[in-house]
Amino acid sequence: MERWDAYDRNFRKVEGVTLIRGEPIPEGLCHLVCDVLVRHCDGTYLLMQRDRRKHYGGMWEATAGGSALQNETPVECAVRELYEETGIPSRELTEVGRVLSGNTIYVEFLCVTDCRKDSVRLQVGETIAYRWVSKEQLLSMKKEELVTERMQEYIEELQTGCERGDGE
């Protein structure tokens, strides 16, 4: 049974309340999800293809991520999810944003890595392929190729940041 901390809509942990994966989240409470966008030092971005048996199977994700476990900080969650889903060990993550969507608070991170590009590890039951793409390729991906509309919004935010010069 996976346990999560409860948060209010202002990203404050609600003490004494535990959420359980698969159970309804009470009105006014949220759970925390962390996503990590991986950029190689050569400027390319990592995409992971979802296992075909999963929801959105066969589509590409531009982030590694998942729900924060009980008593886990956003950075701890991001580090864990990044390693579980890609095999990339990194503690050098930069928080780039927070998004409230329904009863979920998404904390978005950027990981810049110099890992060997062929060292990415697939997570059995989760991912079936990976590829490295240029910023231009990533930003031009269609909604039908990426897992969620939120991901498309994240990429649009990245593009805006890059145009201002703070996404490089």
Short description:
The protein is an alpha+beta fold and about 170 residues long. About 20% of the residues lie in helices and about 35% in strands.
Question: Can you walk through the features of this model?
Answer:
The protein is α+β, with helices and mostly antiparallel strands. The protein has a single domain (3-164), classed as Alpha-Beta Complex (Nucleoside Triphosphate Pyrophosphohydrolase), CATH 3.90.79.10. The chain contains three helices and nine strands. The protein has helices at 74-86, 135-139, 149-164; strands at residues 3-7, 13-20, 31-40, 45-50, 60-61, 63-67, 93-101, 104-113, 127-133. The chain has a four-stranded mixed sheet with strand order 6-3-8-7, with helices on one face. A three-stranded antiparallel sheet has the order 5-4-9. It starts with a strand and ends with a helix.
Q: Approximately how much helix is present in the residues?
A: 10-25%
CATH class: Alpha Beta
* SSE run: EEEEEEHEEEHH
The spatial strand order of the largest sheet comes to 6-3-8-7
Q: Mean pLDDT, as a whole number?
A: 87
Tell me the domain tally.
1
CATH superfamily: Nucleoside Triphosphate Pyrophosphohydrolase
CATH architecture: Alpha-Beta Complex
Broad shape: globular
CATH topology heading: Nucleoside Triphosphate Pyrophosphohydrolase
Number of helices: 3
Label this structure with key terms.
168 residues; Nucleoside Triphosphate Pyrophosphohydrolase; three-stranded antiparallel sheet; 3 helices; 20% helix; disordered C terminus
